[in-house]
Amino acid sequence: MHFKVIVTLLLFTIHAAIEARFRLFRSKAFSVAIKGKLTCPHHRKGFALVMISFNKKPEVDKHPVAKHYAKFDLSFYLSKMFEYRRGYPREYNLKN
């Protein structure tokens, strides 16, 4: 019982630390690629494979820094992750 609690807290702490690193200490070298379609293209929310890599363009990397499935509001997520990037390509369509 105690072992499961300790492991759960440890995993939660590691996950929170990784997320805080990308949220607080952003670098222009990082890019975010979203692979796959959303579960429902008519709504903003859905599941997609999110990959954070060292690419300067938002494209899929073979060896991303972080790769996880996330449920998010698409417009909010992109506005937060790309707010430091200017010249974001308009022709990049995430639903294709």
Automatic annotation (TrEMBL):
This is Transthyretin-like family protein. The keyword Signal applies. It comes from Strongyloides papillosus. The keyword Signal applies. Residues 1-20 form the signal peptide. Keywords: Signal. It comes from the Eukaryota.
